[in-house]
Amino acid sequence: MTSAAVPDHPWLLPGALSRGAAVARRTPRDWFVDVLCFLLALGWAVLAWRDSVRPEPDFALNAGPAWLNEVDFLLSLLLCAALWFRRRWPVGLALVSLPLAFFSVSSAAALMIILFTVTVHRPLPVAASMIGLSLLTVPVYARLRPDPTLPLWQNLAWTAVFTFAVLAWGMFVRARRQLVASLRERAERAEAEQQLRLAQARQLERTRIAREMHDVLAHRISLLSLHAGALEFRPDAPPAEVAKAAGVIRASAHAALQDLREVIGVLRAEPAAADSGAPERPQPTLADVPALIDESRAAGVRVGLAERVTAAATLPAGVGRSAYRIVQEGLTNARKHAPGAVVQVRLDGRPGDGLTVEIRNPWPAGASAATTLPGAGTGLVGIAERVTLAGGRLEHGRDATGSFRLAAWLPWPA
């Protein structure tokens, strides 16, 4: 692990700074910790200086020359003041202050606080190198300021134990804060992923509703066009037939507008409104296919139905809805592209074998552009997507007999 591999993070120590980042604002906790560290370092410096200037020999431990004690105390005061910048330049401050370890007694506490800060803020190799440099100063310090109460080896041992304790404590704090930051990052990522899943679910639901409305509106508008065309080509029709056709047109237009209003309302709804739990209107099933065919027959389309479905009551609702939409799209395409042709609808299936839906009509011959209804050309694309999502198969196109055939197989579990 290198210092480049583990970037600094402000969360490693409250109020800490990343290299090259702007100064972080101190929090109340930062102020408390900084004041406490400053007071501890200053208190130790004052006590060490007082003991060094006492006349009693028992208290004049590691005293050294008088001028050295004065210089030591002044430098320790400067180092205590520098502790306020320890989060911003921990390594630089450690390098500048390490020479004091050769002779200083008063700055010992401040030096340990700086080494602790380096361990918390910087990767282990950097912290270990600073600790190693500080240990190299111990023999020189023991020669300049020998302790009359302890042998040299004990003095070195106790200094090493205390220094490594500071290193271990700093590593523990660093690891704990990295763990907390990692857990916080995971929680934020999980929340963001949950929001993304919710947004995707809303988008998928809106797409599904839009696809349903496309099928419904295309069916109703094609019926409208068919009835309007009948009125246009038979202006001399009896008043009763005209009134009946006008009534069908009015009812179909009203239903189409209602469907359009619903889909626009859903697509414009805010997420909170979309998730309000309002019940949807009942969705069509396989049992509604005869009514759909009767509606086309009332519009003048010749439709034949061959239904050989066993145990239709056990058909899953999703499969039945897909079958209904396939028949609806097939009838709509027949009215658009083969007006006046006979349409054959076949439903066949049983549990375990699947459900087959087939719509067949003669290929249009010489149909004028004026009789062809406009369309977006995405109906079969939507049906193919619906069948694929259901795990089925779809075939469409001109067959060997010259007829247009739209056939789908949908899975039906036993």
Give your account of this protein's structure.
It is a single chain. The protein has twelve helices and five strands. With about 425 residues, it is an alpha+beta fold. Among the domains are: about 10-150, no CATH class; about 285-414, Heat Shock Protein 90. A five-stranded mixed beta sheet has the order 1-2-3-5-4, covered by helices on one side. Strand 2 (about 340-350) and strand 3 (about 355-360) form a beta hairpin. Helix 1 runs antiparallel to helix 4 (about 110-120), helix 4 (about 110-120) runs antiparallel to helix 5 and helix 7 (about 150-235) runs antiparallel to helix 8 (about 240-270). It is rod-shaped, with a radius of gyration of 43 Å. The model is unreliable at about 1-25, about 55-60, about 270-280 and about 365-370 (pLDDT under 50). It holds the Pfam family HisKA_3.
Share of helix, binned: 55-70%
Strand content: 5-15%
Amino-to-carboxy terminus distance: 59 Å
- Mean pLDDT over the residues: 75
Q: What is the approximate shape?
A: rod-shaped
Structural class: alpha+beta
Number of strands: 5
Layout of strands and helices, then pairs:
Elements: H1 28-53, H2 66-82, H3 90-97, H4 108-121, H5 124-136, H6 138-144, H7 152-233, H8 239-268, H9 271-274, H10 289-298, E1 302-309, H11 317-337, E2 342-350, E3 354-362, H12 379-389, E4 393-398, E5 403-410
Parallel strand pairs: 1-2
Antiparallel strand pairs: 2-3, 3-5, 4-5
Helix pairs in contact: 1-2, 1-4, 3-4, 4-5, 4-7, 5-7, 7-8, 7-11, 10-11, 11-12
InterPro entries: HATPase_C_sf (IPR036890), Sensor_HK_TwoCompSys (IPR050482), Sig_transdc_His_kin_sub3_dim/P (IPR011712)
Coiled coil: 173-204
GO molecular function, one term: ATP binding
